[in-house]
Amino acid sequence: MTTTMFTRLQEELVGRGFIQNTRHLTADEQLGIFLFGTGHAVANRVLAETFQHSGEMISRHFNNLLRGVVELRRDYIQLPLSNSGVHPRIKDNPTFHLFKNAIGAIDGTHIPVVVQKHKQPRYRCRKGFTSQNMMAACSFDHQFLFVCTGWEGSAADMRENIISLILDMRIMIASLRPIEGNDIT
């Protein structure tokens, strides 16, 4: 993460009241602890040792930041407007004739996680680490439309969960009015 991006995220979280400087931790340090913990999938005890604060303090600030980041989803994950239609780059381009009614693209990835010892076999992915499967749908303007997380890493390419995924997508799409040129529903 660049310094500029870190600063922008910190300012947004402070501006919305999700984090603030405290007597023992600055907002920068709270965000650094959170990003280190999520980015490296380390346990609370490791964070407490690395940053030399109590486990209780690390846990409290980590959870506050986690709630704040979850709240940011309302601004950064948005369903397409019902009158937005198909992106012009796709709709009228003969190169993309197979995607002429598409409103976005879907891709998935594995996110490293720390889980209890007895649950690790379910979460172990084909590359050997414990992970959660996640899938995101993005518009052609690079905006998140849908995010689905939480499947065990052993669910290769989410094949075992495709039916529930389709049902979730149908529920999401059914909540929209039909999009012009889109015959998904």
UniProtKB/TrEMBL annotation:
Places the protein is found: Nucleus
Cofactor: a divalent metal cation
Cellular component terms per the entry's GO annotation: nucleus
Keyword vocabulary terms for this entry: Hydrolase, Metal-binding, Nuclease, Nucleus
Pfam families (UniProt xref): DDE_Tnp_4, DUF8040
DUF8040 domain: residues covered: 1-70
GO molecular function: hydrolase activity; metal ion binding; nuclease activity
InterPro entries assigned: DUF8040, HARBI1-like, HARBI1_dom
DDE Tnp4 domain location: 106-158
Protein family (similarity comment): Belongs to the HARBI1 family.
Protein name, as recorded: Uncharacterized protein LOC109728529
Annotated organism of origin: Ananas comosus
